[in-house]
Write a structure and sequence with these properties.
Layout lengths: L5 H13 L6 H8 L3 E11 L2 E13 L5 E2 L2 E4 L4 H17 L5 E8 L7 H16 L9 E2 L8 H14 L26 H13 L3 H6 L10 E5 L3 H14 L2 E7 L2 E4 L6 H10 L10 E3 L11 E4 L18 E3 L8 H10 L2 E3 L1 H4 L2 H15 L8 H17 L7 H8 L4 H26 L6 H19 L3
Parallel strand pairs: 3-5, 3-6, 4-5, 7-8, 7-11, 11-12, 12-13
Antiparallel strand pairs: 1-2, 2-5, 8-9, 9-10
Helix pairs in contact: 1-3, 1-16, 3-16, 4-5, 6-8, 6-12, 6-15, 12-15, 15-16
This protein binds glutamic acid (GLU).
The site of glutamic acid has 11 residues, from helix 12.
Length: 467
């Protein structure tokens, strides 16, 4: 079988789940297709010449609005890619119960070829092109960071949107992933990686899930291979190694592979990469340039770079028990079948990397509410906790240590609430899949159950309208 393109691959996975559902083919078709894709071409004068850039915004499903999804800056960006990614956003937000439809955007550009000032001008112009078509809008379409973009680009986007919409009181909600001082939320940058950690923790809480993957115990000492040390891979690897005791034995990056059977110090490696020194000079592990590190033997493989990296050509060689898809679409439909046949368990992207959009949701809610989380109740919570401890000491004869008092009385700040809300949402998403698999074992795998649950949720929306 020939390798499929990205959106065909997503469709195969969709159809597999749909084949177990009692829905009309016409309704399934409506749910599956991408509603609209806009292509914008615009010129920016840079280095004394006009350069023409091509950008996209695909809107997969508007069954809920605003539609939500990141904007990617990469040379790989094309219509098929943004449409597939927009579809994944629809299913992702449905699976974890967010009130959004799915969208995705991209600009075909190599960000490393341009300096910050040039990227700013390109970003502002792209934002203008999107804004004049309502493709960036607090109640219609809310972009966020993705590959090649981050807080910096979101800051320029919100600023440009504000210039164009001086009287829009909700302008901050036109984009998420902004710096905190421009209306962003604490914990958004780390959110996708944090979500990967929470989902891994949740998986290891359940014996039946571990059994599926022939794994035991908890994350402590588990051998992990991570592909890509960008925002998502870095945070996931850092938290899993520093907080859960997992050993990151291999990190695969664009310019080489780092291996260390004792576990790589992720913070040191990241700092080394940021310093611009060649990867080959990194002292915390063995560095090589071999192309088959994805098949290093491990307990957990975390592809955290981009789509299609595990495909027909290498799926047979993968030697892991569990794959956690931190990237969007890292396993093609053909590879998915090969891995299923081999007994490799996969926690699909739709759930595993939902952390980003979950915290984006919190940010958007904060923006439309114009108040940060915890602002009203924090001191009140602290006063009540103090009252309780004082009474227990005065009348109950108890004595609390200073540390216990501090920990107990300390009211929740925004970051605490964001983390708690993210953890809860990730666990609940996993519960949806677990429960469905228990009820319908014929679905076999997490991905099919995730698609089933997402499609069912969207179908319910249309059915309520009598369709
Ligand atoms: N780009 C991220 C994703 O693929 C985040 C999207 C968002 O926050 O809207 O899920």
């Amino acid at each position: 079988m020939k390798e499929l393109n990205f959106s065909q691959s997503v469709d195969v996975m969709f159809n597999r789940a749909a084949s177990y559902m009692d829905l009309s083919p016409k309704l399934l078709e409506k749910i599956r297709v991408c509603n609209a894709t806009y292509t914008v071409r615009f010129g920016v004068k840079l280095r004394d010449e006009v350069h023409t850039f091509t950008g996209y915004r695909a809107i997969h499903s508007e069954h809920k609005e605003p539609v939500k999804g990141g904007i990617r800056y990469a040379l790989s960006v094309n219509q098929d890619e943004v449409e597939a990614l927009a579809a994944l956003m629809t299913y992702k937000t449905a699976l974890v119960d967010l009130p959004f439809g799915g969208s995705k955007g991209g600009l075909c550009i190599d960000p490393s070829k341009w300096n910050a000032e040039e990227i700013e001008r390109i970003t502002r112009r792209f934002t203008f092109e999107l804004a004049k078509r309502d493709l960036i809008h607090p109640s219609q379409n809310v972009p966020a960071p993705d590959m090649g973009t981050g807080e910096r680009e979101m800051a320029w986007m919100v600023d440009e949107y504000r210039r164009l919409n001086r009287t829009d009181i909700d302008s901050a909600a036109c984009v998420t992933g902004k710096p905190v001082h421009l209306g962003g939320i604490n914990g958004r940058t780390e959110a996708t990686g944090r979500g990967v950690q929470y989902i891994a923790q949740e998986f290891f809480r359940h014996n039946d899930d571990k059994k599926r993957a022939k794994l035991r115990g908890d994350l402590d000492g588990k051998k992990i291979v991570v592909q890509g040390l960008g925002n998502v891979g870095y945070h996931a690897a850092k938290f899993l190694s520093e907080e859960d005791g997992a050993k990151i034995i291999t990190v695969i990056e664009r310019d080489g592979v780092v291996r260390n059977t004792k576990g790589i110090n992720i913070e040191n490696l990241k700092q080394h990469m940021i310093s611009g020194e060649p990867l080959a000079d990194f002292k915390g592990g063995k560095v090589s340039t071999d192309a088959d590190a994805l098949s290093d033997e491990c307990d957990i493989l975390i592809p955290a770079a981009m789509e299609g990296v595990i495909n027909k050509s290498n799926a047979h060689n993968i030697k892991t028990k569990l794959i956690i898809e931190a990237a969007n679409g890292p396993v093609t439909a053909i590879a998915d079948k090969v891995l299923r046949d081999k007994g490799v368990v996969i926690i699909p992207d739709m759930l595993a990397n939902a952390g980003g959009v979950v915290v984006s949701y919190f940010e958007w809610v904060k923006n439309v509410n114009h108040i940060r989380f915890g602002r009203l109740q924090r001191r009140r919570e602290e006063n009540k906790a103090t009252l309780l401890l004082d009474a227990l000491e005065d009348q109950g004869g108890l004595k609390f240590t200073k540390k216990f008092r501090r920990d107990y009385v300390d009211g929740a700040e925004e970051l605490d609430l964001v983390r708690a809300g993210l953890d809860d949402t990730m666990r609940e998403g996993f519960t949806h899949i677990r429960d469905l698999l228990a009820e319908k074992p014929e679905l076999e795998d997490y991905r099919t159950a995730a698609f089933y649950r997402a499609i069912d949720d969207i179908a319910l929306h249309y059915r309520s309208l009598g369709l």
